[in-house]
Amino acid sequence: MAEITRAETVLTEDGVSLWAVRTGEGCPVVFCHGGPGLWDTLEDVAGPLSGVAAVHRWDQRGCGRSQRTGPYSMARTMADLDAVRRHFGLSDMVLLGHSWGAQLALRYTLDHPEHVRGLIYVAGTGIDPGAPWRDEYGRNLRARLGGDLERWSELNDKERTDAEDRELSVLQWTADFADHGQDHEDRGQDRDQDHGQDHSWAREQAERMATPWLGVNFACNAAINAEGRRTWGAPELHARCAASDVPVLIVDGAEDIRPRWAVDSLERALPRVSRVVLEGAGHLPWTEDPDGFQAAVRAFLTA
C-alpha cells in the first residue's frame, strides 16, 4: 500500500505560510529544491529513501504551494529553512540540496553547523566568484536543445502567457537530461539524428516535472540570482568551507550541462568531503542513474 502523506503548513516568524510534507522513517533529511523560483520536484528522490530516512520536503517562499509573498533573499530563505526544521522538531538534520538548493543547503550548513549532521550537495555550481561556469552552461544548453533551440529562443525573448512560461520551462528542462545515445534505444523512442539526444524520453521527464504546473516565480528568481552575482564566491566563503567540520557528499551527473569543474573549488575547500560522479546522467542524476544515486546517498546516510 502506498504511503499516505499529508501536507503541513509551516508558519514563518514573519507570518508566511510554507507548504511542507514528511515521509518515511529514519535519519531526518530535509530537502532543498532547485530554482530559485521553482517548487519541490524531488518526490522521486524521497520514495526510495523511505526505509532509511524521514524525508522533509517543502516549497520555498513564494514558490509552488507556499504563500507567494516576499521578500526574496538568501538570508530570508535560510530563515525559512530553519522554520521548517523547528516545525518538525528537528534538533539536527541532514540537508539534501539540488542545484540552487545545493547552494542554499551549503550556506545554511556554514551558518548553522550545530543543526546539520551532514550535507548532500547534488548538481550544484560551486563557490567560485563571478559564476565562470555560466558561459559554458549557455553554450551547452543551446547545443543540447538542438531542434528546439529556435522555439526556446522565441519564447525566452518575449513577454509570455502562463502557458508559454510552462512551454519554455519544459523545453529548458528537457536539456537537463543527458544525451543518452545507443544505450537508451530500447525505450523505443526516436532520437534527434543531429544531436543524438532521446528527446521524447527527456521531454516526458520534463513534462512530469511541470505537472501540475505551479508557475515560476520570476521575481524570486531575479532577486536571489542578482544577490548571488553580487556576493557569491567571496574569499570568506572559501575560508568558511575550509573550516567546516560537517561531512559532505557531492553527487554529480557527468553529463550535466552546468560544467562539473565549477564544483572542484568546493571539493578542494571542504575538509570532510566525498564525491560521486555518475556517468551518463545529467542535472537530475536520480532519474538517469537511480541505482547509483540511491547507493551513494544511502551509504552516506548510514555511514
TrEMBL record:
Keyword NAD carried by entry: no
Residue ranges occupied by any AB hydrolase-1 domain in the UniProt entry: 28-138
Signal peptide location: none
GO molecular function: aminopeptidase activity
Keyword Hydrolase appears in the UniProt entry: yes
One term under GO cellular component: membrane
Keyword annotations from UniProtKB, A to Z: Hydrolase
Taxonomic superkingdom: Bacteria
Residue segments, region Disordered: 180-202
Biological process (GO), any one: proteolysis
Family recorded in the similarity comment: Belongs to the peptidase S33 family.
Protein's UniProt name: Alpha/beta hydrolase
